[in-house]
């Protein structure tokens, strides 16, 4: 589709065709996006905190794509509407904000990992600016290739709007190990999508650490299409005071003998709002699949709100394993007593629970970050 | 007196009287076993000593090395040297077993950063003790009690008791849910605690642990009072005659 066709689609599509639940209606506050649809492209980029900068990046997406160095085993080129593969050829545009991104994104890259190639580390920073920023990444992993990538989705202090979409098409027998850090200041709404299609016997490991902003809509959708492909997603999500996050983690099983595991932990502080949804669907073609989803949200803060929504749909009678669990808890008296009996005060327990949630996914350790970086935004 | 002393303890929880004048002592290096039927007040005694807020002390005192603990919070009592291993510890998603142990140690070392490992030898010690207790190393990286089997929970509680290095360890039914090998192993580890000079208040329904562990003192708690107290022969009497017999003897003595 051309940019103009996406614009037409944008005008036709709703923000969300169906309400999430009769009680909550919409976990994402789309009004905050709607208010900013007319803003101009960002002229000035937001400064990135030194701790995030120090991760070091091969590619920086800002007003334009800056490819800082070549990476052995892969080609990295600037993306356009005619790139090969074409942006948005994997995922189908299905709502107004996706169509908005499709016709307005301003910088992107295409990463092609060679067949049998190996990438030790490819790190990409997606920044933001005052105004609209839209970034698009397309990744194609060749057969039997191995890749390790770091994606940092940073949204800074200036007013604006950001969309950041990543499409990954995984070749047969390839593997991708991804640390995904989404840090959003409370000054602009952000819509982030990681959409991955897995080929036969490919494996995807995603570790996510997210700290929401004014309104962060974050979707990680994995489509296990090839037989014997496997997905493991571990997520740590935090909503600080004055922030709102709607995190949706999806494992769709299409191929036979596919495996999926989604484990998410979240914490809502102050008057923060966190909806953490972990969804798995096993289609009729996905015989002998196994899938587990779990989501646990802790509420710390009298005005904080949290939702943990697990959903498991099974459309075949031949399943190896399928399970889901979820909880939303405040700090219960028995938990508090137990931890206090180890010598810890309530304040120390709260800090431990927050740190524990943040370190759960492994991103903090892998990127050698301090949990405090999330609170300095 | 050195060790733990409970004097004439009267306790109420949610309006119900659960302890009616309990006296007992736990000296360092000894195991004092508290036995009793369901609902006799054994766990209430443990929670009250540890300062759980829902247990209201109406009368009496709890002393550690002669100093009253009443008025101190649970965490303050822990820092004074009490440790309680719960019968069924709660699952706490988001906090690893190693994290809580490191935090507890750091707190005792006076560190303000509770999460950073100050002394790598502590981690080595954790692994060594975990292996001695029959736990796999990976349990340290698992979330606290989440998905732990009954045996893993018991062993994890004991592991924490060794790492935190308290003066008095209160064990609430450490044998429940364990197979015979587990009971033997846990019994050996409890003796290991007293060998280190710690006092152990061991709460149990059954005398089966005493095949592997000779208690120094045994008290039987019935209806919130100590009905009988003595040496290992008391445990033998419980096993042979049952709690109903001890209750009837106690009632007869009281007239």
Descriptive notes:
The complex is a heterodimer of chains A (377) and B (255). Chain A contains seven helices and 19 strands. Chain A has 377 residues and is mostly beta strands. Chain A has one domain. In chain A, the strands form two sheets. Chain A has a ten-stranded mixed sheet with strand order 2-1-5-7-9-11-13-15-17-19. In chain A, strands 3-4-6-8-10-12-14-16-18 form a nine-stranded mixed sheet, covered by helices on one side. In chain A, helix 1 packs antiparallel against helix 4 (96-104). The radius of gyration of chain A is 20 Å and the shape is globular. Chain B has 255 residues and is an alpha/beta fold. Chain B is built from eight helices and twelve strands. A six-stranded mixed sheet of chain B has the order 6-9-10-3-11-12, with helices on both faces. In chain B, helix 3 packs parallel to helix 5. Chain B starts with a strand and ends with a helix. Chain B has one domain: Rossmann fold. Chain B has helices at 42-50, 74-80, 97-108, 120-132, 150-164, 180-195, 232-241, 243-254; strands at residues 4-13, 16-26, 31-35, 55-64, 67-68, 82-85, 92-96, 143-144, 168-172, 199-204, 217-222, 225-230. In chain B, helix 6 (180-195) links the parallel strand 9 (168-172) and strand 10. Helices cover 37% and strands 28% of the residues of chain B. At the A-B interface, helix 5 and helix 6 of A face helix 2, strand 6, strand 7 and helix 3 of B.
